[in-house]
Design a protein that fits this description.
This protein has three domains: 210 residues, 3-Layer(bba) Sandwich (FAD/NAD(P)-binding domain), CATH 3.50.50; 112 residues, 3-Layer(bba) Sandwich (FAD/NAD(P)-binding domain), CATH 3.50.50.60; 113 residues, Enolase-like, domain 1, CATH 3.30.390. A hairpin with a 6-residue loop joins strand 13 and strand 14. It has 14 helices and 22 strands. With 463 residues, the protein is an alpha/beta fold. Helix 3 runs antiparallel to helix 4 and helix 3 runs parallel beside helix 6.
Length: 463
């Protein structure tokens, strides 16, 4: 006989585990299915967390070698221990995944170990056992998009998974895709000595970012040693004991070229992952891109089955999935769960960092919305000068006439932290002047946010 729960969440990534915990807090009997040996999904195991650990280690090394002299700190020969960096990364991941296990026990969430497969619209099979629930939540996340002619082996040709596990620094790393994942992991290996070339089909990197930010970002990475081949497509790859030969050609036509690499990182995007779920047995519909179709409140076409996170429409971001998980759990409990998709920040964890929330200039122009721009450079910020981190600027976009904040974009030190204030302002419908009127501590990087908001009205104080 099948064991029954109020809520069964399929997948323990950021969306799934948060949904499960919140549902348990609201009084539901909850189970969460996870086939990995550890909880946390892609993000905690082979994505967000391990990549940030390596980014931090490589940045610390780079700062020691290149930045300490300016502070009057002289050190002897500096070497890095890649094996120790990788071990530390594993320790960080383990601490986080074990933390979720603790939270499951604390909130009485049952971990069903194995892969879930729908046998009907009201029942799933996990490791040969049947389970039923009043509510099923699909939170199976996403996987790396493959590319025809480029066969991944996770040794010579790798996805982000393999790029996080390299046991030596590649002499030449070619990144296919100029998006967030490729640029972050490219930064890790560039700091440790790799020659990094980025091949991007479009004529710019990070296409979702504000155009001005994207342009400055590319210039910054170029100064750090990145090489960019924009407007190129990859047509094939041949591996050997010596490395990889990539065949590329201009996207708009032209002579073919080859690139030699020790390692190739394939990072052209991610796709909704539903393999093995047997959605057909449940009658759940997917769209042309394989994403689970949902309504305004995450319901599928089948009563009692819902979906959240990367597996549905929207930005593939861990925090977006978390917000959806909480909103859905609260709606199942009869509350008014809601996610404001116009106020979801995005961050690129290179150095300097890049962060964005709300509309870009390109989006506002396309919508015919009149706006004003307020910008303030970190070069004019006292704390940034003291830190020796003066690259970049804060940019706010406000509606002309009403001054309502429409978007904010930052490239600079700790941009990922600074964007939180502007996300809050956007969430509460604040104006640029509202941000400018708030007293910001001195000297802090956040004063650049205040000054950018002042600049939207042409009254910045320090430029």
């Amino acid at each position: 006989m099948a064991e029954n729960f109020d809520v069964i969440v399929i997948g323990s990534g950021p969306g799934g585990y948060v949904c499960a915990i919140r549902a348990a807090q609201l009084g539901f009997k909850v189970a969460c299915v996870e086939k990995r040996a550890t909880l946390g999904g892609t993000c905690l195991n082979i994505g967000c967390i391990p990549s940030k650990a390596l980014l931090q280690s490589s940045e610390t090394y780079h700062q020691t070698v290149h930045g300490l002299k300016d502070h009057g700190i002289n050190v002897g020969e500096v070497k890095f221990d890649l094996a120790r960096m990788q071990a530390r990364k594993g320790e960080v991941v383990s601490a986080n995944t074990k933390g979720i296990e603790f939270l499951f026990k604390k909130n009485k969430v049952t971990w069903l170990k194995g892969a879930a497969k729908f046998t009907s619209s009201t029942e799933i099979d996990v490791a040969g056992k049947a389970y039923t629930a009043k509510h099923f939540v699909i939170a199976t996340g996403s996987d790396s998009v493959p590319l025809k002619g480029v066969e991944v082996d996770e040794k010579r040709i790798v996805t982000s998974t393999g790029a996080l596990e390299l046991d030596k620094v590649p002499g030449r790393l070619v990144v296919i895709g100029g998006g967030v994942i490729g640029l972050e992991l490219g930064s890790v290996w560039r700091r440790l000595g790799a020659e990094v070339t980025v091949v991007e089909f479009l004529d710019r990197i990070t296409p979702g970012l504000d155009g001005e930010i994207s342009k400055v970002f590319q210039q910054t990475l170029t100064k750090q040693g990145f090489t960019f081949k924009l407007g190129y497509k990859v047509t094939g790859a041949k591996t050997s004991d010596k490395g990889v030969t990539l065949s590329i050609e201009p996207a708009k036509g032209g002579a073919a070229e080859t690139l030699e690499a020790d390692v190739v990182l394939l990072a052209i995007g991610r796709y909704a992952y539903t393999a093995g779920l047997n959605l057909a047995a449940a009658g759940v519909e997917t769209d042309e891109r394989g994403r689970v179709k949902t309504g305004a409140h995450y319901e599928t076409n089948v009563p009692g089955i819902y979906a959240i996170g990367d597996v549905i429409v929207g930005p593939m971001l861990a925090h977006k999935a978390e917000e959806e998980g909480v909103a859905l759990a609260e709606r199942l409990a009869g509350q008014a769960g809601h996610v404001n998709y116009g106020a979801i920040p995005g961050v690129v964890y290179t150095w300097p960092e890049v962060a964005s929330v709300g509309a870009t200039e390109e989006e506002l122009k396309a919508q015919g919305i009149q706006y004003v721009v307020g910008k303030f450079p970190f070069m004019a910020n006292g704390r940034a000068r003291a830190m020796g981190e003066t690259e970049g600027f804060v940019k706010v976009l406000a509606e002309k006439g009403t001054d309502k904040l429409l978007g904010a974009h930052i490239i600079g030190p700790d941009a990922g932290t600074l964007i939180a204030e502007l996300t809050t302002a956007l969430e509460f419908g604040a104006s640029a002047e509202d941000v400018a009127r708030v007293c910001h501590a001195h000297p802090t990087l956040s004063e650049a946010v205040k000054e950018a908001a002042l600049a939207a009205d042409g009254r910045a104080l320090h430029i």
